[in-house]
Amino acid sequence: MNKLLKEHIVVAQNASGRNMNVPLYRFVGKQPGPKVYIQSSIHGAEVQGNVVIYQLIQWLKNLPICGEVLLVPNCNPVGTNIKAGEYTLGRFDPVNGTNWNRGYYYDDAFIREFAHSIDDEEAVQSIKFRFRKKMKQQLQSRLDETWGIGLAQHLNLKLQQLAFDADYVLDLHNG
Ligand SMILES: [Zn+2]
After folding, report:
1. CA of 156 to the centre of ligand 1 (A)
2. pLDDT level of residue 95 (50, 70, 90 thresholds)
3. pLDDT (tens digit per residue) in 114-166
4. DSSP H or E run through 150
5. For residue 116, how far is its CA from the centre of ligand 1 (angstroms)?
6. Which residues face 80 on adjacent strands?
7. How far is the CA of 29 from the centre of ligand 1 (A)?
8. Are 4 and 61 in contact (CB under 8 A)?
């Protein structure tokens, strides 16, 4: 059967200095195969995706897979915990108004430059390998910047580090 690994990554700290964690559920099949990445609740009030992931976890406990499925429910503990009465203000960082879902790394010039580095002979596997290696470096260098990265962008980059080498990525949003 699949191997299930549960871990946490630290994505932020609250005002009193306590770490805010995001849970990771990693199912690894006995046979090799593609990597699937699914996250939910980047907009903290959109909790329905967490239920979908919960159901998926129950399924994957008994369903042999090839490859890997990485599930990241409640991926925005900051947004989920910001309440006004019973209402969850999950869409924007209340400190600066930034949408929690707009800070992923994308650089048109980087993509263009990489595209020019490919020649007609190169195998798809090799292109993927090189691209992911460069993406990994780009993400780390953004996170290493000591100035200018807001909480939302920091969170997005940490999540993108989990997803950049996946063959399929789903980011669950719902009303
Ligand atoms: Zn959303």
Report:
1. 13
2. confident
3. 999 999 999 999 999 999 999 999 999 999 998 888 899 999 999 999 999 99
4. none
5. 34
6. none
7. 30
8. yes
**How far does residue 52's CA lie from ligand 1's centre (Å)?**
15
Domain ranges for the chain:
3-172
Q: How far apart are CA 105 and CA 114, in angstroms?
A: 15
Q: What's the gap in Å between 172 CA and the centre of ligand 1? A: 7
Yes or no: is domain 3-172 CATH 3.40.50.300? no
CA of 148 to the centre of ligand 1 (A): 24
pLDDT tens readout for residues 38-85: 999 999 999 999 999 999 999 999 999 999 999 999 999 999 988 888
* pLDDT for the residue 82: 86
What residues pack around ion ligand 1 (CB closer than 5 A)? 43, 46, 173
b vs e for 19-45, b when ≥16 Cβ sit within 10 Å of the residue's Cβ? ebebebbbbbbeeeeebbbbbbbbbbb
Task: Give CA–CA dist 174/1, Å, rounded.
Answer: 32
Cβ-contact 136, 87 below 8 angstroms: no
- The answer to whether residue 35 scores a pLDDT higher than 90 is yes
